[in-house]
Amino acid sequence: MTKDVFDCMRECHSVRSFQPDPIPDATLGRILEAASWAPSAGNLQPWYFYVVINSELKHRLAEAAFEQQQIEAAPVAIVLMADPARSNERYGERGAQLYCIQDTAAAAQNMLLAAEGLGLGACWVGAFDERRVQELVEAPPRLRAVAILCIGYSDEPEDEYKERFSVAEVTKLLH
Asked: The pTM is what?
């Protein structure tokens, strides 16, 4: 049973402490499938997902991410890579510089919501040495590392929801 998507959006938060329990293959598969359903410019789907379970590799990824230990602590770390060349073919420089990053970020958000809906915790890591991460996962040089998602069963106490700006504070309605 999964949560309602609106509950997932409201309850989703960064988890940095994980239980050591592995994620079942079927559950991980559903999270990856959710990513593949993300919208993308021209339906080009300019993303690749490098699923890291190996402890030593997660340790080296944590080092490349300025010692963010949640990468090592999570049972799974997923490196999301964007393919600028794929977006460039149809949309030129704007596709290569922006659309492929937006598209891959949408896939990451789908993964976070799917993880939350399936009872897992997750953390989006964006601060890392991009070139080093690319080398560690042996990605082709044309790909750009956009995010590292740490996913597992939370080992943190229940979190209270963080305050958000009201819709009125961040919205301008134009008639």
From this structure: 0.94
